[in-house]
């Protein structure tokens, strides 16, 4: 089947872009990304504004630049570049060795492999109750054996062997389905088991610093037992062992729970819903429920759900690049009837007979081999790795400095015990004692690295995203989203504009014909056939029945008529049925010769039909003004042909009137085709260009699709949040204007002038520079093609906007792919659109888009809260230990205490702050810009105030604590020092617990609002406080602390609680609008430019 002619290149642009999506980014896209990243510092590997579609070299670069202590954990949820390469190699291998791999999988199926559906799958028994066996069926489809198919009597003969009715499908009863699964297998594939908790435990302890600490603990344990005996000597080493074990356990548990969230998300992504014909009805089933013998309708944008054979098809073109690796469109007909699972329908429509499912298909083998998700990274994750690396380098420098100072002081005899005894005296101190002291010093330095390198910071993004997804899936009000790319949720928080479709997104997608004009007469009510001549009703019925991809099912028991198809198709079929259309009778009485499928480029579809008297009619249906322009006459309500010349203005005015009432206008027209122009053989019929001139107008119908309830409020929320909503629709410009006014996208009719409202053809005709300037002003684009939508997205992105775009058709794939966030429709969206998108809106509702914006902003805000909290702890802990080490040769916070602080700050802090639910306040802010610094001036202010307070108070306690506490004259000097250090440790932890409340609301005075509703936050605070009490009161031997009296507990709580009023006062201090970071970055870049030159 060749599609070089006009009819078959109808959606050529869409097909071309679809290939580009499969093949990768085009040069234009590279140029666009370069344009967008003008401000990107090329020497900074972490300066990546978006990770969607970036080359692997860029991703590899930042990984190599990151300071990482535990690569297994840090890169767990980033894209596994090695696995991506292996996936491509595996694809090639499967194509070459499908038979061998399938045999191996069947052999392994019984034991170690878990099936996607969760149900045990019986190994298929060849043949069973059917006249054709599994092996012959699978090999025929896999090897495209046309001769074998012909031996079976073609698709009709094969359907008989499989007990399938090609028109009505198989029976719907469970016994029949079960029988087929036993004979031919189920449409599931083996999948590797998810990693167990033990794997996460294994990965958690592979942190370099933890390994060093374990070694140090082992040395300390050995020396302690040797010098002090088993009873007392095991405490120092044992306490570090237990602290490290606690860190590993908590980390592994947190990571394991997180992985379960991703498992649920991946299951959702794989479970595609599709239409099949069973017992004569079109029903929706899960792709996993498909069986051999099913009859599946295919339309543009669908994924071929199993291997099969074409029953009937019109202009059916399949994109087989996902299986063959070649970006080539293959046209399917009786000579090329074999369809491969996993491929996409690029054009046309048809029906297929399923002949192979699950691992009996190459797609199933491929999925079984590469089913493990290779992850992805988000821009925020990359930036946080940069922040973590910077903090880590500072921390490492501090740790080395502390190590050098402590060692120097120790070996020069300047380090003393609490009782004043010099720890090291050259020539008299035993080697074992000196070695033990050096190990303790080294352990302190390593622990500073553990605290300083925030390994959990980049992982906090994944944690908060996973939490957000779980909450959205659990909450029925939010369960209208399916996230395909986690980074999209994060990016959505930065969206500055949303380019939304009209139909089904802003409107209900519940279409009904409310106006009909036949001839020059308005039919009222529109389905009253008594006002029409029988010949007109007959032509209308034939045009609607044959020029449709929908279906009308009349139950035998006389129940309600069931109509399937797109909402527009259903509305017109329902109207024609009420006029008296006999759908099945018309389809059986006339023969379809050729079909021009409806597509969004030409906005019309046509069909050539041979009637029983051998006459050939061409029926057209499509956008009112476009089809009307091709009409030279019309049939009046009495069935008489009239000239269009004098009455064209009447029909144009009627269309405008309907459109102004927010109706979708569709014109039905036809023409007779001369016999000599009708192709006589099948091949020339396939290449036939249907004539689309000199048409005769049959009817103009106005279809009402009311606005969704609440859409006006949702649009207002977006506008208030600084997110501009633009409507991009294929509908008439007047219809678009009316709906935009109704939805609140346009404020008043007075403002409606070009370029605020514009037609797609006008926009696409502009030069590129003008398009970029015009794009900012456009609010509504009518009669737009998918290519116009793509051009608008590109122009907006070049202007610096972060663009979200909605789409449902196959030809929307390039725009969805190009946008920062692609949002496809779950109900009307094709599989191609869904695969090109980042988020699927399951209910096709614009209000759901607003929810994504809200949650996206929440992700960013939560990460900022966590950063503020973590940096406060980092700065305070490092400064306190460094100052104390340099001045006195000792540190108030020892290894075990620092490990506990690290646990509070890292894993527990992330759980508490990264899981804050979104608030309404988030939608009263402007979107976060692409280049906006992660640490804002407000965060710097809060962080420095708290850190300075903590450092000041705790250093005063460190140097003057004995005097303040009245312990200067204590005879037991060692006990006095332990009391002082225990108070410092306890007060430090209390400061973090109270400051965690402050971190919840970095900008608001009241940091307690909604805190009692966040059970996880309160639980973690309670858990931390309980453990701290246990540590101080009962685990003193492990942490080198002593029990504190109630007075010192009050002092500790008092020091911590002061952070609350201090935060309130701090929030009253104004901050400059220019980010502080620019003052540091500019000189750095200026210094580097001459060097780079």
Automatic annotation (TrEMBL):
InterPro entries: ATPase_P-typ_cation-transptr_C, ATPase_P-typ_cation-transptr_N, ATPase_P-typ_cyto_dom_N, ATPase_P-typ_P_site, ATPase_P-typ_TM_dom_sf, ATPase_P-typ_transduc_dom_A_sf, ATPase_P-type_domA, Ca_ATPase_N_dom. Its EC number is 7.2.2.10. Keywords: ATP-binding, Calcium, Calcium transport, Calmodulin-binding, Ion transport, Magnesium, Membrane, Metal-binding, Nucleotide-binding, Translocase, Transmembrane, Transmembrane helix, Transport. GO terms for cellular component: plasma membrane. It is an enzyme of class 7 (translocase). The chain crosses the membrane at residues 200-225, 237-256, 387-411, 441-467, 947-967, 1015-1036, 1048-1069. CDD domains: P-type_ATPase_Ca_PMCA-like (cd02081). It catalyses: Ca(2+)(in) + ATP + H2O = Ca(2+)(out) + ADP + phosphate + H(+). Its main location: membrane. Residues 154-225 form the Cation-transporting P-type ATPase N-terminal domain. It comes from the Eukaryota. GO terms for molecular function: ATP binding; ATP hydrolysis activity; calmodulin binding; metal ion binding; P-type calcium transporter activity. It is found in: Membrane. It is a multi-pass membrane protein. Catalyzes the hydrolysis of ATP coupled with the transport of calcium. Belongs to the cation transport ATPase (P-type) (TC 3.A.3) family. Type IIB subfamily. This is Calcium-transporting ATPase. It comes from Hibiscus syriacus.
């Amino acid at each position: 089947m060749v599609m070089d002619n006009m009819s078959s290149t109808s959606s050529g642009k869409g097909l071309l872009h679809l290939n580009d999506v499969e093949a990768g980014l085009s040069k234009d896209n590279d140029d666009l990304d370069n344009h967008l990243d003008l401000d990107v510092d090329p020497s900074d590997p972490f300066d990546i504004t978006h990770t969607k579609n970036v080359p692997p070299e860029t991703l590899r670069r930042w990984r190599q630049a990151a300071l990482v202590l535990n690569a297994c954990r840090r890169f767990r949820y980033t894209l596994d570049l090695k696995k991506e390469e292996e996936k491509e190699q595996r694809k090639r291998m499967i194509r070459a060795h499908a038979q061998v791999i399938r045999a191996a999988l069947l052999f392994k199926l019984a034991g170690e492999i878990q099936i996607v559906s969760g149900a045990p799958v019986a190994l298929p028994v060849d043949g069973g109750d059917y006249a054709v066996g599994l092996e012959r069926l699978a090999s025929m489809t896999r090897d495209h054996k046309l001769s074998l198919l012909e031996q079976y009597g073609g698709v009709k003969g094969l359907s008989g062997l499989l007990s399938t009715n090609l028109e009505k499908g198989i029976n719907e009863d469970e016994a029949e389905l079960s029988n087929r699964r036993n004979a031919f297998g189920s449409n599931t594939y083996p999948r590797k088991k998810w990693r167990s908790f033990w794997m996460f435990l294994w990965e958690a302890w592979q942190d370099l610093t933890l390994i060093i600490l374990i070694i140090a603990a082992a040395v300390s344990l050995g020396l302690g037992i040797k010098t002090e005996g088993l009873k007392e000597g095991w405490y120092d080493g044992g306490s570090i062992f237990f602290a490290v074990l606690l860190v590993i356990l908590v980390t592994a548990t947190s990571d394991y729970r997180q992985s379960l969230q991703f498992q649920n998300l991946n299951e959702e992504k794989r479970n595609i819903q599709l239409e099949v014909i069973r017992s004569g009805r079109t029903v929706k089933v899960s792709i996993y429920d498909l069986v051999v013998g099913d009859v599946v309708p295919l339309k543009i944008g669908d994924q071929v759900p199993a291997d099969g054979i074409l029953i009937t098809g019109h202009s059916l073109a399949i994109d087989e690049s996902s299986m063959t690796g070649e970006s080539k469109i293959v046209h399917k007909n009786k000579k090329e009837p074999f369809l491969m699972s996993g491929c996409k329908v690029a054009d046309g429509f048809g029906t297929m007979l399923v002949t192979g499912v699950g691992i009996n298909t190459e797609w199933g083998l491929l999925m079984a081999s590469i089913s493990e998700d290779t992850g992805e990274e988000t821009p925020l994750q990359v930036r946080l790795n940069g922040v973590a690396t910077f903090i880590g380098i500072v921390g490492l420098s501090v740790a080395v400095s502390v190590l050098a100072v402590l060692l120097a002081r120790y070996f020069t005899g300047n380090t003393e015990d609490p009782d004043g005894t010099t720890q090291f005296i050259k020539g008299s101190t035993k080697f074992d004692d000196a070695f033990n002291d050096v190990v303790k010093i080294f352990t302190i330095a390593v622990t500073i690295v553990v605290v300083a390198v925030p390994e959990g910071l980049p992982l906090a993004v994944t944690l908060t995203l996973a939490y957000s997804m779980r909450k959205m899936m659990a909450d029925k009000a939010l369960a209208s989203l399916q996230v395909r790319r986690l980074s999209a949720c994060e990016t959505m928080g930065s969206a500055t504009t949303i380019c939304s479709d009209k139909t089904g997104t802003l409107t209900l997608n519940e279409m009904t014909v409310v106006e009909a004009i036949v001839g020059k007469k308005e039919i009222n009510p529109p389905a009253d056939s008594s006002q029409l001549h029988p010949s007109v009703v007959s032509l209308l019925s034939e045009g609607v029945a044959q020029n449709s991809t929908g279906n009308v099912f009349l139950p035998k028991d006389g129940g309600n008529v069931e109509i399937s198809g797109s909402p527009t198709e259903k509305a017109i079929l329902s109207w024609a049925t009420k006029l008296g259309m006999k759908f099945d009778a018309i389809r059986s009485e006339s023969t379809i010769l050729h079909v021009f499928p409806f597509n969004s480029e030409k906005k019309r579809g046509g069909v050539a039909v041979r009637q029983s008297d051998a006459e050939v009619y061409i029926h057209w249906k499509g956008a009112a003004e476009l089809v009307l322009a091709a009409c030279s006459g019309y049939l009046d309500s009495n069935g008489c042909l009239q000239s269009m010349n004098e009455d064209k203005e009447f029909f144009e005015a009627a269309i405008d009137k309907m459109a102004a009432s927010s109706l979708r206008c569709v014109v039905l027209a036809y023409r007779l085709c001369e016999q000599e122009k009708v192709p006589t053989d099948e091949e020339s019929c396939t290449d036939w260009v249907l004539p689309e001139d000199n048409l005769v107008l049959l009817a103009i119908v106005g279809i009402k699709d009311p606005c969704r309830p609440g859409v006006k409020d949702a649009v207002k929320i977006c506008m208030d949040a600084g997110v501009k909503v633009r409507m991009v629709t294929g509908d008439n410009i007047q219809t678009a204007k009316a709906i935009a006014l109704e939805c609140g996208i346009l404020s008043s009719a007075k403002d409606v002038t070009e370029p605020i409202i514009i037609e797609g053809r006008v926009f696409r005709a502009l030069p590129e520079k003008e398009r970029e300037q015009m794009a900012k002003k456009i609010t509504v684009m009518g009669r737009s093609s998918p290519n116009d939508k793509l051009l608008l997205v590109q122009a907006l992105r070049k202007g610096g906007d972060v663009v979200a775009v909605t789409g449902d058709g196959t030809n929307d794939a390039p725009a969805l792919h190009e946008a920062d966030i692609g949002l496809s429709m779950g109900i009307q969206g094709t599989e191609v659109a869904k695969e090109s998108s980042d988020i699927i809106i399951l209910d096709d509702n614009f209000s759901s888009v607003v929810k994504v914006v809200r949650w996206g902003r929440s992700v960013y805000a939560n990460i900022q809260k966590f950063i503020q909290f973590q940096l406060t702890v980092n700065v305070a802990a490092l400064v306190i230990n460094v100052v104390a080490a340099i001045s006195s040769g000792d540190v108030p916070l020892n290894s075990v205490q620092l490990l506990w602080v690290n646990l509070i700050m890292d894993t527990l802090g992330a759980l508490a702050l990264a899981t804050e639910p979104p608030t309404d306040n988030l939608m009263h802010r402007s979107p976060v810009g692409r280049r906006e610094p992660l640490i804002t001036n407000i965060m710097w202010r809060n962080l420095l105030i708290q850190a300075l307070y903590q450092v000041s108070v705790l250093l005063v306690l460190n140097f003057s604590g004995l005097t303040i506490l009245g312990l200067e004259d204590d005879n037991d000097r060692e006990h006095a020092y332990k009391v002082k250090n225990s108070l410092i440790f306890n007060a430090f932890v209390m400061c973090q617990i109270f400051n965690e409340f402050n971190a919840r609301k970095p900008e608001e005075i009241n940091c307690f609002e909604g805190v009692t509703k966040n059970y996880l936050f309160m639980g973690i605070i309670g858990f931390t406080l309980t453990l701290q009490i246990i540590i101080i009161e009962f685990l003193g031997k492990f942490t080198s602390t002593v029990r504190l009296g109630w007075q010192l507990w009050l002092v500790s709580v008092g020091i911590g609680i002061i952070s609350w009023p201090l935060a309130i006062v701090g929030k009253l201090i104004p901050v400059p609008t220019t980010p502080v970071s620019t003052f540091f970055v500019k000189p750095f870049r200026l210094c580097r430019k001459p060097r780079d030159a």
